[in-house]
Amino acid sequence: MTRRGKLSLFPLTGILALGLSLPCFAENWPGFRGPTGQGISSEKNLPLTWSLRENLAWRVDIPGVGWSSPIVWGDRVFVTSANPEGTSCHVLGIDLHSGKILWDREVVRQTTNRKEPQNSHATPTPVTDGRLVFAAFNGGKLAALDFDGHIVWTREDLNFFSKHGLSVSPILYRDLLIMPFDGNNAQDLTEGYLKAWEGAFILALDKKTGREKWRARRGLSRQAHVTPMIIEVEGKPQLISAAGDVVQGFDPETGERLWTVHSTGEGVVPSIVYGQGLIFTSSGFGSPTIRAIRPGGHGDVTATHIVWESRDNVPTKPSFLYTDGLLFCIKETGVISCLDAQTGKTLWRHRLGGNYSASPVLAEGRLYCLGEDGSTTVLAPERQFKRLARNELEGFCQASPAISQGRILIRSQTTLFCLRQGAGKGGAASP
Fold it and tell me: Which of 198, 313, 374, 413 shows a CA-CA span of 20 to 30 A to 402?
């Protein structure tokens, strides 16, 4: 294997361009899986336990359907939603303190697009730079709005198609809005979506105007739903993006493909995490495999950059969580594993019960695991299994939680809940 490159966080939402400091930024939850894209928050004084009668600050019904996660900047919460047919797509701005819906803006009106029944037309989580909110919807429709709900630009010309629908979330890098479109051939639904094809691409737009800056082609790959991330490898930023069959590094400024690791699998959902110089990925439904990959190199580095593999208890929907040399993996059937991140060795495994789609989040030394039944199991992120609490809410949950300013936000199929230590019993927010 080649020498391991230095790996560190490169902020996903362009904070260098905005001139913001990381401590200020870290209080927000600006996109999918938070400020680092890895599901980790620096917030303190969060509730350990809650229910409909304890530590519930407020709850508000969200019109329509959507499995996007809430995001938070300052005193604003943003969520996306669509009607069941996906013909009317919306972005909502909500007051963080009261739960009041401040505005509900229709940003896209379109004909319906194909998706799997368990998906929604508003599954991608929006992202914000503190000035604009960027949202994506099934079919590849994109929109940018200001914090008052005014539409700045839209893109409705991408014509993305996937048998499963669109689930990947956009990210920000400096002045670029970046999003992969790993779909499949719309002409062949019987077998074509299982075949690798040349149509997948990654798109970078000017975040201020929506104009295309670059478009990167993957080469042969199958459909996937993996949100990318920006890391630093040997002193330079790299865009790390996985699709069906490949994990790849790109130059985020130009879209140049730098390296590829072949990772066979179709319908890849879990997002990438990294730590200790390694990228951790799942190969999805076709051939579920966890892989630890050393980033860097040039061209096809499959033979030299895969550090370890495991086919044991592989998650195909929830993303991993890495912390302090440990890799936590939740299978959708409710079994959680703790792995040694350097070796892939399983340290412990435990059945939580129920089914899981949401990705775990970490804050204040606690691992929060949200189940589809609205229950959250809170664990100690340690080398031995230790359950700290189990909390119940109502409703079907697939969206991942958000954490910001001492609050935990959980979205069910119909309702957004805000949890805060000492809040007592929260009522329905005013419309």
Answer: 313
